[in-house]
């Protein structure tokens, strides 16, 4: 599929990096009405449900009509462990889609929706960067089409119905010491992690300890992203374990009569959202579970739709490949029957030097010694991805400070590991800067067969599945389970959930559960402190190290720099 290129002259990498912010580039862009973008993709007007001029949801009728079409090729974009130097995984995903368009290939990119927590916290938004962004950038990074608000409302409706059930006589004999359903909100707010509710008179409820998670860690978000259709959504909602009764038996959302109302809140949120890149190529953005505390992938519905609507679907998984790619393969692909055809692994020379011990302020200076030490992080991710039998293409997201010697060192290293290699300049040059990568991906798709396989079998005990991920993907030498985690594993198995895949909640900055261990730590001890089942989503969650499901704000959160001028123009988002 062809594309319209930006009319503004594209500046050099140096000029963009020094002078023009992502939001300024996005605000200068001339967007096409989303109907035109859809039309060039072959999506008819009647299939769109408009949210303004530049956003639309895809109708249920159109999605149902896609089922008999053949699938395109599925390309996963993942990355090394994130560092303060930046990697640009979403930017590469978007730029690669634009490059496919410039090559006349019909491609759709499928991405997650940003969470307000990191937008106002430390990470920023998830619209890409430079000349590889999805737009409207401000709307995407803020309220978008209301999907996250729907998830929040459905989550908190179940919480309200549970507490009301206790207040109105507790017919299900819920043990208030074993309520496991938490409230949620889409904002980093550490003081809500552990709270007390029900203070006041008898009419104000039963006094008990309660908790909040961020919306992207809610099981409702995972269910939204894994559900096939409305029937599957309701069946999954019904299986949610909200509490346990006095006999230690699960009390579900179905028993609390919450399913119908929750489904009503999620009805529109079930539909994927269509927007565009700066070069007017189509992007489906839908769902957004975090990869460090949830399963980290956009919705199955959006990915499947993209595979049916185009010859190539480019999707991404959150954070590094140890988290996002592992869960994409072992949870999403396992459940949905997806079979990826190729993987693009994103790295930067700056991030590799940081992994090799270079200070942040010195990352712009050639340092082959640090690069040689830090490239072991890339090496481990390559080895991990190859265990799944999917061809790997490594791309360096280019910076102006990269030297020829550094780039050639990485190129030669990747080739010795049996990987294809391509340089990416999509941040500064948009689709044009991704043509080399796109051609390398196409070459890989045509010459190498994917023999995709998951890492472990369903029949293995949950404890063994956790140990396999820890040893094979993280490089751990030993896995220890807290006394509480051991009891919880036993309970999960007794309840009949032992065949479910595991969703590892781990810090994103290191392959280990210690964020300070950079590079390629080996033989370390991974500590699992808590285990619980997300019965509706269909996986077992294992919390490791100090990872939390309700993040906090940093000392200087991004919110400090965000503003709106008298004309309604937002500044400071990134």
What does this structure look like?
Helix 8 runs antiparallel to helix 11 (259-266), helix 10 packs across helix 11 and helix 15 (368-386) packs parallel to helix 16 (404-416). Strand 12 and strand 13 (250-252) form a beta hairpin. The two termini are 29 Å apart. This protein has 20 helices and 25 strands. It has 574 residues and is an alpha/beta fold.
Blueprint (SSEs and pairs):
Layout (H helix, E strand, L loop, with lengths): L12 H7 L2 H7 L5 H8 L6 E3 L5 E3 L1 H6 L7 E7 L9 H14 L4 E5 L4 H5 L7 E2 L2 E4 L1 H5 L5 H21 L6 E6 L3 E3 L9 E3 L10 E3 L1 E3 L4 H8 L3 H10 L1 E5 L4 E3 L6 H8 L6 E5 L4 E4 L14 H10 L2 E5 L4 H16 L5 E6 L1 H7 L12 H19 L5 E6 L6 H13 L3 E5 L1 H4 L5 H13 L14 H13 L3 E4 L1 H12 L7 E4 L19 E10 L4 E6 L18 E2 L5 E2 L3
Parallel strand pairs: 3-16, 3-17, 4-15, 4-16, 8-11, 17-18, 18-19, 20-22, 21-23
Antiparallel strand pairs: 1-2, 2-14, 5-6, 6-14, 7-12, 9-10, 12-13, 14-15, 22-23, 24-25
Helix pairs in contact: 5-18, 8-9, 8-11, 10-11, 14-15, 15-16
What's the tally of helices? Answer: 20
The helix content is 25-40%
Low-confidence stretches: 1-18
Number of strands: 25
Q: Gap between N and C termini, in Å?
A: 29 Å
Shape: globular
- The computed structural class is alpha/beta
Please give the radius of gyration in angstroms: 23 Å
Portion in strands: 15-25%
Could you give a short description of this structure?
The protein is of the alpha/beta class and 574 residues long. The protein is 36% helix and 19% strand.
Provide tags for this entry.
574 residues, alpha/beta, 12-stranded mixed sheet, 20 helices, disordered N terminus
